[in-house]
Amino acid sequence: MLTGKQRSYLRAEANKLEPYIHIGKEGLSEAVYEKIDEVLDDHELVKIRVLDNSLLENNEIADEVCDRMGADYVQVIGNVFVIYRKNIEDPIYKLPK
Question: What pTM did the predictor assign?
Fold first, then answer.
């Protein structure tokens, strides 16, 4: 669980990122989950775009992805959401206490 300070730090870091993953009308398939898992392992902080033709709401998708991936929700803005999962072996971001 992220504190407000940590979430604020990660939001600032996420501003520099482009969306790594796009979720369309197919929704959340196993292939999408595998890709999200791979990107979280590599980058820790991931920006995901939900395309307009998606049948699910952004908040629903963000909650489902966080639950399944063991990630923390950072923010949702419009059709983009950001999630974070710390890489225990090689952390990239040093979160404030």
Answer: 0.91
Task: Count CB neighbours of 34 within 10 A.
Answer: 10
Classify domain 4-84 at the CATH class level. alpha beta
Encoding tokens for residue 29?
A: 């398939």
Pair of tokens at residue 58:
């952004």
How far is residue 80's CA from residue 1's CA, in Å, rounded to a whole number? 21
* CA-wise closest residue to 65 among 10, 15, 27: 27
With bands split at pLDDT 50, 70 and 90, how would you rate the model's confidence at 53? Answer: confident
Boundaries of every domain in the chain: 4-84
End-to-end CA distance of the chain: 12
